[in-house]
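Backbone shape codes:
===
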Amino acid sequence: MKTDSSHILCINPWIHDFAAFDFWAKPLGLLSIAAILREKGLKVSFIDCLDRFHPKESKKIKVLWDGRGPFRKTEIDLPKGLEDIDKKFSRYGIKPQWFAADLKKIKKPDLIFVTSLMTYWASGVKETIEMVKQVYPDIPVVLGGIYASLCQEHARKDTLADLVIKGSGEHHLKKIIKKFTGFALDGSNLSALPDLYRDLDAFPFPALDLQTKIVYAPILTSRGCPFSCEYCASSYLEPAVRRRSPENVFREIEHWHQNYGVKNFAFYDDALLVNARQYAFPLFEKIIASKMDVWFHTPNALHIKEITKQTADLMFRAGFKTIRLGLETTDFSKDRNHDGKVAENEFYIAVENLKAAGFEKSQLGAYLLCGLPGQNIDEVEISMHLVRKTGIQPVLAYYTPIPHTPMWKSAVKHSKFDLLEHPVFTNNTLFPCVNSEVDLKHISQLKNLSI
């Protein structure tokens, strides 16, 4: 048994993709685990392969007004099976030699956690773990995150991870620490880990301070989603909806703003406005009353039917700057496919409420799904025109086939690629479920109408 504090290394892997940009993208789950372990007395280090502000970066770092910006990019070979694609494929993130140097300069870890996000970024995860094993061949690597959860068998076979875990990592922590480090758990402070399924307020704030620089902070007020849309894996990854208290969320926003000067915050929620009077309204009112000079963004989209006049007014006064609505389509018929979250009048009312509250056209966008199995692209164009008529921007959301979703079997059937062979073939840049060249050209034309 170890008598001293174990050292845990947390790693955010490279991205391998045709295009990538830092749209308020942080490994929130991994940094949450880091915060828990640090609070319980373990030594924690963090290496971010996507670090835009790495100390060895000599190029001028571009930071937009909202904290976003481009990743460093290095062209690499196209994946196997896509060699004939007329597109460039790149590694996004720090140079491999920087990563190797960072691994070697830290104290040798007892255990390494690697996270994962998009399923089609699998090869970036693989390369990251391969380099880790070159430097620390005898140190166990635990892989978690979305790719690990949705493509568990592939991750086990294709990466050098010693353990691949499914679902929320916090739920596995005690067993993992005991198995791989020998850290005494009986009577230790780790045995006091709160139950993830009882009280989200019991967890410490994510360890964003482990980053080289904090230019924005992701905020998660809840886990899970009350809807089960056919194209989304949210209900599979988080079967139950659980909420943090408005007081706890406000303290986190206040913490990052006052102690680290953070101005931009991005809500990662799938259900930010659900049951708004009990959760969102008290939070917005606290932010307004505090008079903090902060800005908020909603890249994960808001539920349209929840945007009343009061909601829009509170959001505007609280400092929301980027609003994305989860519209998906303007086919409001009763037999519409894929989801049934919003009616036609609810969409128009929400838009009018937002504009009346003071939001400008440039701040408002409605996501429209494009590239679904069997989708008529003409209907996407019709939806874009209808959204524009309301005075806001249509934002095309290109479909990614996701395992364990109701639409997955249809995607596998309709795809021009073997989606079961490798997750890279689900990349939305490839439009895997669009087989007609005419439709592909049509989509290319529609891109110019979107933002």
Observations:
- The longest strand covers residues 320-328.
- The longest helix spans residues 246-260.
